[in-house]
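ok so I'm stuck.
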Amino acid sequence: MNLKYLLDTNILFEPLKATPSSSVMGQIRKKEGECGICSPVWHEILFGMQRLPSSNRKDIVRDYIERVIEPSMQILPYDNHTANIHACLRAESESIGRPLPFVGSQIAAIALVNDLILVTRNTKDFSIFKDLEVENWFLE
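replied:
not stuck anymore, here's the structure
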């Protein structure tokens, strides 16, 4: 798998919406095999699913995770090198008065360490990192 894109949670769950964005869906199909996720996003989706009450919705989310995401998306780790970059990013963002949420800056660090384009709807949150390439497939 030749990864080029790191998908944020808001992109990853777009297919489960009642009316998913056609631009996001088109990009997901077009970039198949080039997209991965990271361990913090993996945690977010598993935690979100676990928090749902027993329901048809929970079954749909579980099925999507098990049949679509897990077999098709490489999950990149948060390791020692990434933790070092993460610490630098957090310090940088806090020094200019724009602290990022912990998980958001973890995701940014993983994208940077792996030289990937971060795909998210929340591009503004990541605009302070000059070396991080970010795309919003909702606008394409």
